[in-house]
From TrEMBL:
Pfam families: V-set, Xlink. Keywords: Disulfide bond, Extracellular matrix, Hyaluronic acid, Immunoglobulin domain, Repeat, Secreted, Signal. GO terms for molecular function: hyaluronic acid binding. It comes from Poecilia formosa (Amazon molly). Coiled coil: none annotated. This is Hyaluronan and proteoglycan link protein 2.
Length: 339
């Protein structure tokens, strides 16, 4: 009898909780800006690595005494290292590595826009322009998106060999960095379909699926499959790396080289074997298309396809194809060099 009463009570509680919908007070509307010009909705500035960009911040009214503080809103860091610069009407003080590449545009007397030069991969994120006058402080937030390409990366020793820190290092060695979730999501919307889970920048693990299939999560719908946060020291997966445009160019040398011969072939041309990220960047931004497998610096063999065709991998989508990591004494492939 007690068990029956308990079940009935629990059922009533669950049903009551599910149907309970209190009248919550509506969230207060954001305060109308007095000194700063309201930016357009969802302001986003886009740029590629190496570009110079301007993050807009315009004063509507200039207080008698004020400071402008620019900060990068990075949830993984707190404190002074987030501040890019603090400025008054006469001078500004830069902070941190981003501050060294930052200045105020000052196109006119009401302009507090931030000029960022020589963009780096890690500059992607949200930035806050704050007017401080000790009475009515105000701020606006601008998003800076680095245009680039996400590529999956696996150890030469096989699948799921990287802990988080090793994945970070692997991406850096291939001219990239671990992708953010928003970068991975954008890549998925552009067609990235990959059945191996990989680390991303915030320490979580995911894999993007465009074409659901039984071996990749069963009958779940297309989307970003998530394993959530994992132990950064002990759990092991692949990596999703992000890179952007490159200052140089990638070119192919025809031949049937071993790995060492490919290194020498590039060296004779005043270059070096390309990194994986450099090949992806050339494919994305320079529309590099080459239907021949070639050695890369990490010992893998790949080739980039912009215009898919039957005799170039037979896959209908554009992309960078891979032969994995062949034996380095194999004499079958050309060389992709970077200069």
């Amino acid at each position: 009898n007690f068990a029956g009463i308990l079940v009935i009570t629990l059922n009533y509680f669950i049903q009551s909780s599910a149907s309970y919908n209190p009248h919550r007070a509506e969230p207060s509307k954001p305060k109308k800006l007095q000194y700063l010009l309201e930016p357009p909705v969802q302001v986003e500035v886009a740029g590629r690595r190496g570009d110079n960009v301007t993050l807009p911040c315009i004063l509507r009214i200039k207080p008698n005494h004020y400071k402008i503080k620019w900060t990068k809103l990075d949830p993984e860091h707190l404190g002074q290292q987030n501040i890019i610069m603090i400025s008054n009407a006469n001078a500004f003080k830069p902070y941190g590595p981003v501050g060294r590449r930052a200045s105020l545009l000052r196109a006119h007397t009401m302009d507090a826009s931030l000029l960022l030069s020589h963009l780096e991969l890690g500059d992607d994120g949200r930035y806050q322009c704050e007017l401080i006058n000790g009475i009515e402080d105000e701020n606006i937030v601008i998003t800076l998106r680095i245009e680039g390409v996400v590529f999956p990366y696996q150890s030469q020793h096989g699948r799921y060999k990287f802990n988080f820190h090793e994945a970070e290092l692997a991406c850096a060695e291939q001219d990239g960095m671990l992708a953010s979730y928003s970068q991975l999501y954008r890549a998925w919307t552009e067609g990235l379909d990959w059945c191996n889970a990989g680390w991303i920048h915030d320490g979580t693990v995911h894999y993007p699926i465009v074409h659901p299939r039984p071996v990749c999560g069963g009958n779940l719908p297309a989307g970003i499959r998530s394993y959530g946060p994992k132990n950064k020291n002990h759990d092991r997966f692949d990596a999703f790396c992000f890179t952007s445009q490159i200052p140089g160019s990638v070119f192919y040398i025809t031949g049937a080289f071993s790995y060492d011969q490919a290194v020498y072939a590039c060296k004779r041309q005043g270059s070096a074997l390309a990194l994986v990220g450099q090949l992806y960047a050339a494919w994305r931004f320079q529309k590099y298309d080459q239907c021949n497998g070639g050695w890369l610096k990490d010992g893998s063999v790949r080739f980039p396809i912009v215009s898919p065709r039957k005799r170039c991998g037979g896959v209908p989508e554009a992309g960078v194809r891979t032969f994995g990591f062949p034996c380095k004494t194999t004499h079958l492939y050309g060389a992709y060099c970077y200069r």
